[in-house]
Amino acid sequence: MIFTYDTELTLRAACMLVNSNRGASGGVDGAADTVGDVAGLDAYLAEFGWTGRRDRDAAELADVHRLRERIGRIWAVAEDEERTVGQVNALLSDTKASPWLTRHAEMPEWHLHLASIHDPLAQRMGAEMAMALADLIRGGELRRLKTCAAPDCDAVLFDVSRNRSKIFCDTGNCGNRQHVAAYRARSRDG
Ligand SMILES: [Zn+2]
Ligand SMILES: [Zn+2]
């Protein structure tokens, strides 16, 4: 394992959040927003075992969507280490991240929480994502944050492959689509 379990899990969650309204333009889902309503957000949080306060109202949903845009902007500048550090520091500060060790039924391994369970959802999510990003940067692994190489896809990826060789996202079957497109182009040319 490259990172601690909770760092990797949180970065996967961040990646999926950013991709929740992205993907290949020609994909089956189009630009559908999988966390566009409270039920979608519930499903997303359940997948990652997120616990703590839930308001289940429009304000909470809007805050999560704002966080999604913010994390997306961090991914977009990931090739620029200085800019990424600036944005991660700002997110740590804005979410008042304050780490403490905990474990609970949903996640029995010791791991960090970065906010009180009584803090608003987007604040807690933002703090944990900022800390996971800080971990990535400290480990010199920022290059694992990528944008899908398919020309018609704006999804992001968190590349956990050993040699950091992934270039396509997991959302739109982009690797296969590009392979087929390249094959067709070769057939045409030949
Ligand atoms: Zn926890
Ligand atoms: Zn893609």
TrEMBL record:
It comes from the Bacteria. Pfam families: ABATE (PF07336), zf-CGNR (PF11706). InterPro entries: ABATE (IPR010852), ABATE_dom_sf (IPR023286), Znf_CGNR (IPR021005). Residues 144-186 form the Zinc finger CGNR domain. Gene3D superfamilies: Jann2411-like domain. PANTHER family: BLL6575 PROTEIN (PTHR35525). This is RNA-binding protein. It comes from Mycolicibacterium diernhoferi. The lineage of its organism: Bacteria, Bacillati, Actinomycetota, Actinomycetes, Mycobacteriales.
